[in-house]
Design brief:
alpha+beta, two-stranded antiparallel ribbon, 2 strands, elongated, binds zinc ion
């Protein structure tokens, strides 16, 4: 069984922007989708607080 998954999704036309507002240190940062995911996984880049999706606007 050969399963070649060569999918290239380089669609930079729709780069979603969010505004992240930290619930702890109230830092406001403009982020894109990639950064948003990173912050959701790693926490606030400023104070390392736990971040949820509701902290993005
Ligand atoms: Zn913070």
């Amino acid at each position: 069984m050969s399963n070649s998954t060569r999918r290239r999704t380089e669609q930079q036309t729709t780069m979603q922007e969010y505004t992240y507002i930290c619930p702890e240190c109230t830092q406001e940062i403009s982020v894109n989708d990639e950064m948003r995911n990173a912050i959701l996984m790693n926490g606030c880049p400023v104070c390392a607080a736990t971040v949820t999706r509701t902290d993005f606007k």
